[in-house]
Amino acid sequence: MNNQTTPRGKFISFEGGEGVGKSTQVTLLRDHLTAEGYEVVVTREPGGTTGAEEIRQLLLSGDTDKWLPMTEVLLFYAARVDHIERVIKPALEAGKWVISDRYADSSFAYQGAGHGLTQDTLKELHHIATRDFWPDLTLVLDADVDHGLSRATEREAAVAANNREDRFENMTNDFHQRLRQAFLDIAAANPVRCRVISATGSISDVAQRIWQAVQNFRQGAAG
Ligand SMILES: Nc1ncnc2c1ncn2[C@@H]1O[C@H](COP(=O)(O)OP(=O)(O)OP(=O)(O)O)[C@@H](O)[C@H]1O
Ligand SMILES: Cc1cn([C@H]2C[C@H](O)[C@@H](COP(=O)(O)O)O2)c(=O)[nH]c1=O
């Protein structure tokens, strides 16, 4: 009988403000890890399952004041629980690495610092919904707000008006400045899990910084 168990995979999240380059870097990291022989699942929040993608449409389109902050965060967590239970945990248990384009730190930044829900409320909700399930490594991409927003706005302008996912991009500049600081504060408060990566420079400059952080993480995890 073979008693060998598959080692659990690793869960990496990418976080940061609008247009800092998360989706671009998620794909590059997936390619890098795949080339090194890992089985990698790329996913995103809100989304990743049929139901969560439906919730995504409710959340990302429409007027900025469409949802009350509490309604909004409950929708994000409804999507998140589905995502964790149906995609993330099964993949990790099968030994795969999971890379998620955003996870719960976005709720702490957007619905917390952005919309004013308290840390205690968010921590309690996270505990009830996920039993404190967090990534092994979180890469916080940091860049000037106006720079990222103009890239994101340009991208959305190319999308048909009825398919745009720009509800959060349309929030005030002050909202986006609070987000940037919130992500930096989250990283400072969680130094074991989080790494801040400067998202300025070329796509390949940023990818190199990320790869260095992932190598350091792998060495730490192996040792
Ligand atoms: N380092 C970079 N230099 C120049 N352009 C970049 C860089 N990184 C990404 N871009 C471009 O900026 C745009 C936004 O990038 P991307 O979609 O990866 O950001 P994002 O953080 O996932 O955005 P959002 O949070 O709004 O979904 C894309 O058109 C992408 O090609
Ligand atoms: C997970 C999560 C996301 N958000 C916001 C952040 C972005 O504006 C959108 C997701 O769009 P992206 O193009 O895929 O980055 O949703 C949030 O407010 N709270 C969350 O928990």
Instruction: Write the CATH homologous superfamily.
Output: P-loop containing nucleotide triphosphate hydrolases
Q: Give the neighbour order of strands across the main sheet.
A: 2-3-1-4-5
The level 1 CATH classification is Alpha Beta
Give the structural class.
alpha/beta
Give the overall form. Answer: globular
> Would you give the CATH topology?
Rossmann fold
The overall average pLDDT, rounded, is: 95
The ordered H/E elements are EHEHHEHHEHHEH
Number of helices: 8
The hetero molecules present are: adenosine-5'-triphosphate, ligand LXEULUCI
Q: Distance between the terminal alpha carbons, to the nearest Å?
A: 29 Å
Q: Provide the CATH architecture.
A: 3-Layer(aba) Sandwich
Total strands: the figure is 5
Q: Report low-confidence residues grouped into runs of 5 or more.
A: none
Helicity, as a percent range? 55-70%
Tally of structural domains: 1
Largest sheet: 5 strands, parallel
- Rounded to an integer in angstroms, the radius of gyration calculated over CA atoms is 17 Å
Please indicate the percent range of residues in DSSP E strands (runs of 2 or more).
Answer: 5-15%
